[in-house]
Amino acid sequence: MFYYVLKYVVLGPMLRVLFRPRIEGLENIPEEGAAIVAGNHLSFSDHFLMPAILKRRITFLAKAEYFTGPGIKGRLTAFFFRSAGQIPVDRSGKDAGQAAIREGLGVLGKGELLGIYPEGTRSHDGRLYKGKVGVAVMAITAQVPVIPCAMVGTFEIQPPGQVVPKIKRVTIRFGEPLDFSRYAGMENQKAAIRAVTDEIMYAILGLSGQEYVDEYAAKVKAAEQEAAPPKKFRKLRR
């Protein structure tokens, strides 16, 4: 119930007025039945903008940290994500990927829309990174279409680390549904799920026009942080 209050009364109308999103390919979202919407992830704002413009309810697999943050801000964030029907996923353990797949298949099993960011985390520099294979496993196992989605301009309005977004127009593009029925029964074959994942990422790339990096975003980010000088040293150099 609260999901629809947010969407149609509180948050949705405000986002449409402030960001005036251009919406392309909305007809590619099926009116009923299970499907996966797989998109790039450039900004915290993505969590709000895409659901706000969709006619159907969409459930995202959200990182567990959104539900466990400290203080008033943490409690408000957790309340919002729970009220919006988002599912917390712990990404820290070795079985985190399997847990996310189980949760996602549960959503699809109910004939609903599942939203997922195959990169696994927000892009820290605006580029598109290699996709993780969980989206392919779910698509093949559940035998559902995957609709690629590109958020364009959200990195500019709210890059990682920026709390308050800039008021600027954004574009949300949906591509034609991708059918992976030819891979039925191959969800445990590494070559198959990698091929499906790469096809999804290529479709997102075609919609977004981003620079592509054939490495995982988390790995690149960690390497850059490790190579960067300590903060105190950076201040001294100035």
Q: What distinguishing features does this structure have?
A:
alpha/beta; single chain; 15% strand; 9 strands; two-stranded parallel ribbon
Q: Could you give a quick summary of the protein structure above?
A:
It is built from nine helices and nine strands. The chain is an alpha/beta fold.
Which helices and strands appear, and what pairs or packs with what?
Elements: H1 2-19, E1 22-24, E2 35-39, H2 46-53, E3 58-63, H3 71-83, E4 87-89, H4 96-109, E5 113-116, E6 128-129, H5 134-142, E7 146-152, H6 154-157, E8 171-174, H7 190-208, E9 212-213, H8 217-227, H9 231-237
Parallel strand pairs: 1-8, 2-5, 2-7, 3-4, 3-5, 6-9
Antiparallel strand pairs: 7-8
Helix pairs in contact: 1-2, 4-5, 5-7
Describe what you observe in this structure.
The protein is an alpha/beta fold and 238 residues long. α3 (71-83) links the parallel β3 (58-63) and β4. The strands form 2 sheets. Strands 1-8-7-2-5-3-4 form a 7-stranded mixed beta sheet, sandwiched between helices. It has a two-stranded parallel ribbon with strand order 6-9. The mean pLDDT is 87. The chain starts with a helix and ends with a helix. The chain has 9 helices and 9 strands. α1 packs across α2 (46-53), α4 (96-109) packs parallel to α5 and α5 crosses α7 (190-208). The protein has helices spanning 2-19, 46-53, 71-83, 96-109, 134-142, 154-157, 190-208, 217-227, 231-237, and strands spanning 22-24, 35-39, 58-63, 87-89, 113-116, 128-129, 146-152, 171-174, 212-213.
